[in-house]
Specification:
By secondary structure, the chain is of the alpha+beta class. The protein contains 4 helices and 10 strands; from the N terminus they run αβββββααβββββα. The chain has a single domain, classed as SH3 type barrels (Roll). Strands 5-1-2-3-4-10-6-7-8-9 form a 10-stranded antiparallel sheet, with helices on both faces. The longest helix has 16 residues.
């Protein structure tokens, strides 16, 4: 990542500016909007905000995938106002205190497991949402993660193991994932 772009992102984090991050992901024109919460040399954690100004969990991405960052535009300012007018807050996403020297993705998987959050994991070349892994984090090892996968209706769909180095982005505890968790709990209650 260009050094100035990283500095721009760090300034946005310090000033608590709502930003739009344009990144290469599973879709070519992926845009995430929210507040940068943590930044390492290679990765970032964003408090994601919906287009209606609602809290929507967290997104983690690789800095090398970012090709544009927008702050203080009309769209970002309006979303920031909506977020604040609706008294939206993101619950703390507890991570290591010395995060600068850590793998932010690994720490996020550990936090997701601890908090029983559903994650949506994107890999290079995953063009369709069906190709992503969606589920609970079962185990986190030094270089690998094991997930208990879920279908779109909240039923269990096997397990996956993957390497941390292959992860492009992680979406965690979004509104859709919280709905999916409710569906899973419903299915567990009727079985």
């Amino acid at each position: 990542m260009d050094r100035y772009l990283q500095t721009f992102m760090k300034e946005s984090m310090i000033k608590e500016n709502l930003v739009s991050v344009h990144a290469y992901g599973y879709q070519r024109d992926e845009v995430w909007t929210g507040y940068i919460n943590l930044l390492t040399e290679n990765q970032f954690l964003m408090k994601h905000v919906t287009e209606d100004g609602l809290e929507d969990g967290f997104i983690l991405g690789r800095l090398d995938d970012v090709f544009q960052l927008t702050r203080n535009g009309q769209y970002e300012q309006e979303l920031d106002q909506l977020y604040k007018l609706q008294d939206q807050q993101h619950n703390p996403f507890v991570l290591k205190s010395d995060i600068q020297k850590s793998n932010l993705f690994r720490e996020a998987f550990i936090a997701a497991k601890k908090n029983n959050f559903i994650v949506n994991v994107c890999f290079p070349g995953t063009e369709e949402e069906e190709d992503m892994i969606v589920g609970f984090v079962r185990d986190v090892y030094w270089n690998e993660v094991v997930t208990l996968n879920l279908t779109s209706s909240g039923t269990e769909d096997g397990e996956s193991i993957f390497y941390l180095e292959d992860v492009v982005s992680i979406h965690c505890h979004s509104r859709d994932m919280r709905k999916l968790k409710l569906l899973k709990e419903y299915h567990e209650g009727i079985s």
